[in-house]
Design goal:
211 residues; alpha/beta; six-stranded parallel β-sheet; 8 helices; binds zinc ion
Length: 211
């Protein structure tokens, strides 16, 4: 059963949650690349390598348990000058998790991040984009909550790597926040689509920035 999702987040969803961050300004040729679910061996270093070759910075929304397991890969992300965000400790689905547990799990990840990066600028992205209004209310004072404008679909086993690239290019516009995954299930598509995606927009005069 394919997972239903949109390559570009529809405007009505953004209007339902105006306090979440969906994209950047539309008057500048800037794209915000983001990578969810790392840090993990192989895939995160691959992404770091691609970004370094392109000379650009991005944002990594990290799972706390992966930071615990792979602290040296997390340090590589930080040392390369990318920004990092909190993606909960256990990759929780907010719609299936009570508020207190959700906040505690998020705080546990913040504690992990701060051990590596004491002056961390808080950023949070809910796994699956699923977060309740009560959870938003509980986290908002501490964290800007970052969603996305473009979902690459790199996690989708039914999407070819060519379509992953083409759909992502078509959905992207000025100010887009774009999601890829530094996760093993996305590796094949990422390896193909990410360098091509970046060079497509660099040739068109876009800049890539971290959040
Ligand atoms: Zn995730």
């Amino acid at each position: 059963m394919p997972i239903p999702y949109f390559h570009r987040t529809p405007a009505f969803i953004k209007m339902l949650y105006p306090n979440l961050i969906w994209k950047g300004r539309e008057d500048k040729k800037v794209i915000f690349l983001s990578f969810d679910d790392g840090p993990v061996p192989c895939v995160t270093p691959l992404v770091l390598d691609i970004l370094e070759k392109a000379g650009i910075k991005a944002s990594f929304f990290c799972v706390g348990d992966n930071i615990r397991k792979y602290p040296e890969i997390f340090d590589q992300v930080i040392n390369a000058g990318h920004s990092v965000g909190n993606h909960t400790y256990s990759h929780l689905n907010g719609w299936k998790t009570d508020v207190n547990h959700y906040v505690q799990d998020t705080q546990k990840t913040t504690d992990q991040i701060l051990k590596h990066l004491p002056d961390w600028k808080p950023l949070f992205r809910p796994p699956y984009g699923r977060i309740s209004r009560a959870q938003i209310y509980a986290l908002t004072p501490q964290y800007p909550i970052v969603m996305w404008d473009v979902l690459s679909g790199d996690f989708d086993p039914n999407l070819s790597k060519e379509n992953c690239l083409n759909n992502s290019i078509k959905a992207t516009r000025e100010g887009s926040i774009v999601v890829f995954h530094d996760s093993p299930k996305a590796m094949d598509k990422l390896e193909f689509a990410l360098p091509a995606y970046i060079s497509h927009f660099l040739k068109k005069g876009y800049k890539f920035q971290k959040l």
